[in-house]
Amino acid sequence: MNDTPAVASEPIRIGETAPNFRARTTLGERSLSEYRGQWLILFSHPADFTPVCTTEFIALAKSAEEFDAAGCALLGLSVDSVYSHIAWVTAIKHKFGVNVPFPIIEDPSMAIGRAYGMIDDAAIDSATVRSTYFIDPEGIIRAITTYPHNVGRSVSEMLRLLHALQATEGSAALAPEGWEPGDRLLALPIINSAEIGAEDDWFCHLADAK
Q1: Where are the beta strands (DSSP E) in the chain?
Q2: Which member of 66, 70, 89, 130 has the greatest number of CB atoms within 10 A?
Q3: Packed helices 51-62 and 82-96: angle between N→C axes, nearest 10 degrees
Q4: 41 assigned to some structural domain
Q5: Which residue from 145, 210, 143 is spatially nearest to 180, judged by alpha carbons?
Q6: Strand 39-44 vs strand 22-23: parallel, antiparallel, or unpaired?
Q7: pTM
Q8: Active-site annotation holds for 72
Q9: Tens digits of per-residue pLDDT, 88-147?
Q10: Catalytic residue among 53, 74, 105, 118
Q11: Coil, strand, or helix at residue 194?
């Protein structure tokens, strides 16, 4: 049984503490608090044994070492039972030769999904769920992405966003459009309205990438 918080009255927002939970997974029971001290990507998928979700899980499994090297754990979730999850990842291994190394939560009551705002309170299933939460080592939600059920996420973009969040952590640096690890970061300018239009190119100050 999932030990989950009460349903949030408002959607989870960036900067808030991720609601704690304890639930069964394909690798035994897990609680969110166990991941303190490292980054965590908590992501939901509509259903096991579906085409788009399978492509996502194959890509995530193949990139698992890159997430691990960045100090980030992966934790999947859907309403399917842990037995369905196990059968699915077993089928993925047999069919595609890919081992899914990260745990997948069962959430049949949709308690965790609703606590995180992954699904609407009135929803009777999770068919539209494809949400991703980037949680920092302090348990704070740093980024949220949501995709419809018929469009898969980009694992390379998940990695890029993770690296960008880490690169700008605790500094005044900003990650510009399309930033990749090794690229230069933008420095946060200190300006007031009187400085706008000055000769200095205030919006393009650059800082060396970390």
Answers
A1: 22-23, 30-31, 39-44, 72-78, 104-106, 131-135, 141-146, 173-174, 185-187, 206-207
A2: 130
A3: 70
A4: yes
A5: 210
A6: unpaired
A7: 0.86
A8: no
A9: 999 999 999 999 999 999 999 888 988 898 876 666 666 657 899 999 999 999 999 999
A10: 53
A11: helix
